[in-house]
Automatic annotation (TrEMBL):
This is ABC-2 type transport system ATP-binding protein. Signal peptide: none annotated. It holds the Pfam family ABC_tran. Its main location: membrane. It is a peripheral membrane protein.
């Protein structure tokens, strides 16, 4: 059974379709990233899968259940990261996580979880005293307190500093690899998507434009590396799929006259821009 199975998903608000015909699946322990410009339909998709929005058409199964009819037992298997804990400002970090854990059969130990998300030095602090990034880490901790089979992360690292981001990436990989948690995340950070995701789905205007591993997308769509160099002070640039052979040829031909050689590998960003347009 697929963890998520979406076929022909449509969503209409009033007279406007914001999801046209979205289909995809994820297997157990897979990290799938939804990428796409503002308004592409990423949050709408996630909220339908979480059971917070009712779709207009199509079939959706999440852990074998239609989210529109998901019960409490089903919901307890999902990790949902909300930003709705602001009103618990007077609670302390450990206290809130221990409290929420009691709703689940096999929750994380609060201290282990706090350590996992890197909030150990804030365990006894009140939530209202946390910084923005620390609150996001707490949001993630709350999302995984029940050891979910499937975790939804909607732009999880917004507002993280580079160290927190790095730690968070390690956490996501650990959840997927060691605990076999399936993870569906949205992000605007292409570097994050290529590091974290086993598979990427590019969504624009409510349609799936492409999907594949980060490498597949980069190779299929962007394809070529950029080679820059100078000969006798004159700059040159060439796009090639064979950058190593090209560089070798340059040296064979021009020898020591070649300077400032740079090879920029095709990146996911190139593929993304080629697909969704660079002028947005
Ligand atoms: N409740 C609503 N009523 C009407 N239109 C809505 C509603 N919620 C979302 N939309 C529209 O649906 C489209 C998709 O929005 P959605 O939030 O899913 O995009 P997104 O890909 O998550 O964007 P972002 O990257 O900006 O977060 C947008 O055009 C948005 O204006």
């Amino acid at each position: 059974m697929e963890t998520i199975d979406v076929r022909g998903l449509r969503m209409r608000y009033g007279a406007t379709d914001v999801l046209h015909d979205v289909s995809f699946t994820t297997g157990s322990g897979e990290v799938l990233a939804l990428l796409g410009p503002n308004g592409a339909g990423k949050t709408t998709t996630i909220e339908i899968l979480e059971g917070f929005r009712i779709r207009s058409a199509g079939t959706v199964a999440v852990l074998g259940v239609d989210p529109a009819r998901g019960d409490e037992v089903w919901r307890a298997k999902l990790g949902v990261v909300l930003q709705s804990w602001r009103d618990h400002g007077k609670w302390r970090v450990r206290e809130l996580l221990a409290h929420l854990g009691r709703y689940y059969a096999d929750p994380w130990d609060a201290d282990e979880l706090i350590e996992l998300v890197g909030l150990s030095d804030r365990a006894d602090h009140k939530i209202k005293t946390l910084s923005g990034g620390q609150r996001r880490r707490l949001d993630v901790a709350i999302g995984i307190v029940g050891r979910p089979e499937l975790l939804f992360l909607d732009e999880p690292t917004t507002g993280f500093d580079p160290v927190a981001r790095h730690a968070f990436h390690a956490l996501v990989r650990r959840l997927a690899t060691e605990l076999h948690t399936t993870i569906l995340l949205t992000t605007h950070d292409l570097d994050e998507a290529s590091k974290l995701a086993d598979r990427i789905l590019i969504l624009a205007d409510g349609r799936v434009l492409a999907s594949g591993t980060p490498d597949e997308l980069t190779r299929q769509i962007a394809g070529r590396d950029e080679v820059r160099w100078r000969v006798g002070g004159t700059p040159y640039v060439e796009l090639t799929g064979e950058s190593t052979a090209f560089a070798r040829e340059l040296f064979t031909r021009y020898g020591e006259a070649v300077s400032d050689l740079e090879v920029r590998r095709a990146r996911l960003e190139d593929a993304y821009l080629a697909l969704v347009g660079g002028d947005r």
